[in-house]
Structure formats: structure tokens, C-alpha cells
Amino acid sequence: MYTDWVFHNSHDISYRSPFGAVTCNQEVLLKIEMLKPVDKVILRLWKDGAEEQVEMRLIEIQEGKRIYGEKIKAPSKPLQLWYFFIIYLKGKKYYYGNFTNYGGIGVTQEWEPLSYQITVYKEGANTPQWFKESVMYQIFVDRFFNGHEDQKIINKKENKYDYHYPAWEENVKPYRIYQEKGEIQGFDIYGGNLLGIIKKLPYLKELGINILYLNPIFEAPSNHKYDTADYKNIDSMFGDNETFKTLCLKAQEMGISIILDGVFSHTGSDSIYFNKEGTYDSLGAFQSEESPFFPWYSFQKHCDEYHCWWGIDTLPNVNEMDPAYRNFIIHDENSVIKYWMQMGAKGWRLDVADELPDEFIKEIRSAMKAIDPESILIGEVWEDASRKVSYHKLREYFLGEELDSVMNYPFREIMLEFFKGQRNAFEASRALLSISENYPTHNFYANMNIIGSHDVPRIFTVLGDTPHEDALSREEQANLKLTPSQRNLASKRLKLFTLIQMTFPGVPCIYYGDEAGMAGYKDPLNRGPYPWGKEDQDILSWYKKIISIRNKYDVLKTGEWYPLNINKDVFGYLRIIKDNKDVFYQKKNNNVSVLIVNRCIIKDIEITIDMIKHVSECRLYNVLEENSHFDVKDGFLKLKLNPLEGKLLLKNTIL
User: Fold this and answer.
1) Counting beta carbons within 10 angstroms of the beta carbon of residue 107, is it exposed (0 to 12), middle (13 to 18) or buried (19 or more)?
2) Whole-angstrom Cα distance, residue 590 to residue 574?
3) Over the stretch 483-521, which tens digit does the pLDDT of each residue have?
4) What are the C-alpha distances in Å from 239 to residues 177, 234, 336?
5) Catalytic site residue from 142, 320, 351, 401
């Protein structure tokens, strides 16, 4: 039974103040509104595994509305605090709680509802400011660029790679699978290396990049290197440790930092530590229980049966909390974390962070910050990281002692569904506002906002309305070419998507080649070689332009964010620095911006935006089009959007 006589909105500070996550011991005022007299209202709290019920006070009556309120104090320890309301009326009990888990306006019903969430995090927790103002670029090293003049592949493992592409321009092939095992038969290589990245640093600098995130580069038998063989050495096909040090130094000279991919939940079976293939001189865990690495792994029956990642026997899981393993990765004077940071790495992205114990992540963070307080720790998390549950445990990523940032897959999913008509603008705004509500502000603004990665189909393919991958065989996926009309649609949508990516709170991350118009279904087809000399120049020019705009204006990086609920087809938001202050520190560069996009393919839309709460009178200039401006009058902005058009309006901008 649903009713409309009770109202609470967690996204509105009139009903919950302050908005969003709070620090330990901080006070939170909760209010709920009744349109009819009730017997009593109970605030039901759940914290640290215990229930608490508090009777709310009637604090105001106005125009027939009865407003109940209660001020609570956040717990003294970081945790997730949950609440809903119980209303007693004429002998009946009603509940008011969260609707669809997105926060905001709730629902009244006669059974227990979903709870609203308040993230309570450690006092003093923060994330480095430089990171929040950066633009990232992800590189799958084998596919980016071969820095050797003759395109020679150095130290190729002939027994590991069953195909070497004879030409860089050749299309990537699907995996070849052992039919009886369902495993990858072999790996193919193009020959990209660290020298190639060094040689392309000027290109990345021109593009406007501040951070490079590298897929794994340590010694491993595969092309992707997620099957680590030696944590202390760069794969010889990519270069050596000195080459990495040179890369860090030259990148630093250009104002670019390096983030490494840390694969610590498993190793490769063909590694120094496990040594299943007998490749190494070391005594591996597979070979003997006397191996110093044996405690790292879990054997049901030595040596044939062991725990491995997702059942893949080439990726044996490690016991992250084994003291010897923790010392090797984190604590030793020459630990993996410390060694590579001392070589020049600015931070780490933790592969499958949900499979790493909270204690393990905390220890990594502590070791990193001791070396460099400004270093960055990013987690691979595919969901709302504030409420992620793995192995029956609610994770502690954003409670102040673990991650600075996560890969923002929800951002990608929400906006893709908007552009493809699977979610309207109101729903998209609410979903994004939910993340903003659940994450501490400093984590929300440090989100790694992705629209592509090595684990999802290329954004150009998805936006072109190509057939869903499940409807095609792998061979059909590999051979599919976008038609001119599909490329045109994908190009227009991609420009809108990146316009949002570069102006939304968080750190935008570009997957190599997306700026060149690369296409492809899921891996390995999304891991093709960068098309040097054959880039889509229109898309590349757009990326350079929009990254430049983001880097130029402070309001696009750290200004406050407010969704603009316009209509179902027009998505937009306001960024604002109030009184020359942004969320984090004082700035004075262009204190108001408005972003709006029309997803309609054929329909013009005339809109009126209510900005009265934030701006009453001002002139806004469209930075995407010369000699174009719009005036906010009496708090309202009126304009027209063409099909698949976006506008980025800034106050007091000189073009």
C-alpha cells in the first residue's frame, strides 16, 4: 500500500542536513513531513549491528503540514548508518523509507522499507587536491606504441605467444580457446613497450593529460600481465626497471604522474612464486610444501587442487593476510609497494579490490602515504563503493582509511543508459546524486570517471547502436565495421558524453584510443593497437578542445554540483563556486557553469531552466561556440538545443 501523505527527501537539506556523508561525531538533523495528524513518529536507526528507535518531536505546524524532527549524532567510529521512519496512525503502523535504493524522495508502505544511508567517515580524511584537478589516460602497454625504430619486439617469449601481428595496423583477433578446457590457447602481441610511451609523452602532454594509468607492466606470460610472474621486474618485452625509472622522470618533467596496476589477489601459475611450469629456478609453491611461497596459497590437495581466481587455474589466489606475503608486498624495506614508488610511481590502482581484505588495503594505504602523502590509491570497484558487499561483508573503502578513489563504472552505466534511451534525464540525475550523497565529498571529487576501459566494449561501438554483443559470435564481433551512419551517431553521442565527463565532479580517465575513434567489442577486441596516423581527426580535435577547457576553468574541477531537472531528454547540471570559494579551497576563476545536453536524435528542444536558488542575474557564454551567449533573468535561463547538441555555459568568460 502506497500513500502520499508522508514526505522526506534525503537529497534536500530541508529534510536532511547536512547533505550526504558526515564525519564521526557530526550532528545530522532529520525531518519528516505529515499531511495529517498522527499518533507518533519513530526514527529507526541501525548502526554497528544494533537497532535504535527514537521518538521524533513535532517541531513545526504550517498550513496543515506537521513537521517532525530529530537531531542525531553520528557514531564516534566510521561506519554506515541506516535509517527509516515508523509512523503510528489510528492503531496502524506505516513505514517510510528509501525507494529503489537511490535516496531522495521515499515511499510509504505497510512493511519494512529499504533504509536510507548515511556514510560516517573518519574525521580529517581527505584526498590529494592535485589528483582532483587532473585528467587521466589509461594505457594497455602492448597496444599503445612500439618505441623501437625497426618495430622490433625485444625478449619475446616464443613459447608463450602463439601469434605476433606482422603489422601494427592489423585488426586484433578473438581469443583462441581450448575447446575441452574453455581456456585461452595462447596470447598474441603487437609489441608496444615503455619506450613507446616515453616517445609519445609529447602527444599526451599536448592532449592535456596529467596522469598515466598503466595496465600491469611486471613480468608475466600473457599480453595483459594480470598473471604476475615477478613483482620486482618489468616484463622484458616492455623494457626493464631502468626504463620505467626513465619514464617516470621524463613524465614528471612534463607534469605527468604514473599510476601502476597492482594485482595482489592472485599471481600467475607460471611465476617465481608458484612455478607450475618449472620455468624458474626458484622452488615454487606448486612444487613443494617446503617452498617459502607455499603459505601464500591455498591448496585443497597438493599440488593438483588449489584455489584460483574465478576458477582459472593459471591464476592461483593468494592468502593476502599471510604475514610473509604482506611483508613482501607492503612492509619490507624493499617491498613491492615501496620499491616502485621509490622508482617514481605516484600511486596504485588495485585490481579486483573487492577480493582484497580491508586490513590489507589499509596497510597498503598506510605504507604509501608514509612514503608520499600525496600518492593515490584507486580501487577497481564496479558498483557504488560506499555500499559494496563482498564475501558477505560491507566494505570500508570510503570510511577514511582505505581508498582515495574508485573506477566509476556507475557513471559510465548511468550515462550510457541515458543516451540509449534506457533511463531518462531525471533518473540519471537521481542515480548520480545518490553516489554524491553516499560518498564523502573528497572521494566523490576524486572518482575515476571512466567511459571506457580494458574490461568493457569500446564506447564508440556501444554509442553507434551496433548489435548487442550477445547477438553476435566472436568472429562476427571481430569483423563488424560501423556503417557511416553508425559512426556519425557514435561521434555525436561521444562528444556529448565526453562533454559531461570533462565537466562532472571527479577525475576523467580516457582509455587509450577512444580519442582516436577506436571501436571494438569486449576483450580482446577492445584492446586493438592505437591507430597512429589514422586517427579520427574530428574526434581527436574534440578531445583536445574539451580537455583544454576542463584544465582551464576551476569551476569545472572543484565547483559544487547541482543537477538541473529540465525534462526527460535534456540532462544538465550547474557547477558553482559560491563567494569565490569552491568545495575545497579559494578560487576566483569563472564561478558559474551550466552543462546541458539534448539526447534526442531528430528533435529540437526549447527549455527554461530554473536557477533561482543559485543565480538570479548573469550572462553566460557558450565556450563551445564563438559569439554565443545567454542571459539569466529573474533566475531563469531560456534557450534552444538542436538534436544531439550540448552547451557548456560559463559566466564572465572571454572567448
Assistant:
1) middle
2) 13
3) 999 999 999 999 999 999 999 999 999 999 999 999 999
4) 29, 6, 18
5) 351
Q: What is the pTM of this model?
A: 0.94
Most confident option among 174-178, 391-395, 529-533: 529-533
Residue 555, all three cell numbers? 569551476
Task: Tell whether 633 is covered by a domain.
Answer: yes
DSSP 318: B
Which domain CATH number covers 32? 2.60.40.10
Task: Please write the tens of the pLDDT for every residue from 316-354.
Answer: 999 999 999 999 999 999 999 999 999 999 999 999 999
Does residue 339 sit in helix, strand or coil? helix
List own/partner pairs for 535-542 with CB under 8 A and 24 or more apart: 536/491, 538/491, 539/491, 539/494, 539/495, 539/515, 540/515, 540/516, 542/495, 542/498
In the three-class reduction of DSSP (H, G, I as helix; E, B as strand; rest coil), residue 231 is classed as strand
The domain boundary, picked from 105, 121, 137, lies at 121
DSSP letters, 257-313, are EEEEEE--SB--SSSTTT-TT--SSS--TTT-TTSTTGGGB-EEETTTEE-BGGG-T
Tell me: do 301 and 329 sit in the same domain: no
C-alpha cell recorded at residue 102: 537511490
For 55, other C-beta atoms within 10 Å of its C-beta total 12
Do 172 and 255 lie in one domain? The reply is yes
Confirm if 571 and 542 have CB atoms less than 8 A apart: no
Answer yes or no: is 293 within a domain.
yes
Same domain, 261 and 294: no
Answer yes or no: do 277 and 349 share one domain: no
Nearest one of 226, 233, 298, 218 to 267, comparing CA atoms:
226
CATH code, 396: 3.20.20.80
Whether the CB-CB separation of 264 and 351 falls below 8 Å is answered with yes
110 is catalytic: no
Across the chain, mean pLDDT equals 93
Give the length of the chain: 655
Distance CA 503, CA 558 (A): 10
Q: Which of 33, 219, 355, 380 is catalytic?
A: 380
Closest CA to 93 of 81, 101, 85, 103: 85
How many structural domains does the chain have? 4
Q: Burial of 53 by CB count in 10 Å (0-12 exposed, 13-18 middle, 19+ buried)?
A: exposed
Burial of 29 (0-12, 13-18, 19+ CB in 10 A): middle
- Which domain covers residue 86, as residue numbers? 6-121
- Which of 255, 259, 275, 257 lies closest to 267, judged by CA? 275
pLDDT of residue 45: 97
Is 1 within the bounds of a domain? no
Average pLDDT over residues 84-98: 95
Q: At 184, is the pLDDT very low, low, confident or very high (cuts 50, 70, 90)?
A: low
The answer to whether position 555 is within a domain reads no
Mark which of 65, 92, 121 sits at the end of a domain: 121
- Give the per-residue pLDDT at 646: 97
The pLDDT, as a whole number, for residue 587 is: 47
Residue 484 has which C-alpha cell? 557511416
Q: How far, in Å, CA of 10 to CA of 437, rounded? A: 8
Which stretch of 2-16, 40-54, 361-375 has the lowest confidence by average pLDDT?
A: 2-16
Reported as a pLDDT band with limits 50, 70 and 90, residue 1 is very low
Which of 455, 437, 485, 352 has its CA nearest to residue 11? Answer: 437
pLDDT of residue 177: 60
Q: Is 351 a catalytic residue?
A: yes
